[in-house]
Amino acid sequence: MTREHRDADVAFIEALAELLRAKDLTELEVLREYGDNDSLNVRVSRQTAAPAPVAVAAPVAAPAAAPSPAPAPAAAPAASDVEDPAQLPGAVVSPMVGTVYMAPEPGAPNFVGVGDQITEGQTILIIEAMKTMNQIPAPKAGTVKRILVENGAPVEFGAPLMIIE
């Protein structure tokens, strides 16, 4: 890669980041092809505060049920349930934005399940980011108490993945 090529790529990425901010987007992915076996695949995303997705999800239900006051109290406990897992001491959070895979390949058994005893450093799942499979290790030994994500689901940076106690 030439210096000119690298400098142009940096400028391109900075322009994408500015576009992301200006248009109030949360994620943008672009594949830039230069020629034979030479391309740049860029995914730019920005982190939103954890309560924001919950606040977005709650009003979707609330306007539909706005005439009756009963659904609003029901939505509030659901929001606190969603926030609680990340606050638990055994919470394992996503180190990146990507797609979660619970098994090493389709049809294979999951890396871990609820109730499994695991060791520190053991692979608990994979997060695919920009066509790269990233093995996520257990931060500590313990028992898997809850799995908070589904296979194939997108995750944001800092999102709780599972609880290990």
UniProtKB/TrEMBL annotation:
Keywords: Biotin, Fatty acid biosynthesis, Fatty acid metabolism, Lipid biosynthesis, Lipid metabolism. Pathway: Lipid metabolism; fatty acid biosynthesis. The keyword Lipid biosynthesis applies. Residues 89-165 form the Lipoyl-binding domain. GO terms for cellular component: acetyl-CoA carboxylase complex. GO terms for biological process: fatty acid biosynthetic process. It comes from the Bacteria. It holds the Pfam family Biotin_lipoyl. One of its GO terms (molecular function) is acetyl-CoA carboxylase activity. This protein is a component of the acetyl coenzyme A carboxylase complex; first, biotin carboxylase catalyzes the carboxylation of the carrier protein and then the transcarboxylase transfers the carboxyl group to form malonyl-CoA. This is Biotin carboxyl carrier protein of acetyl-CoA carboxylase. It comes from Aliiruegeria haliotis.
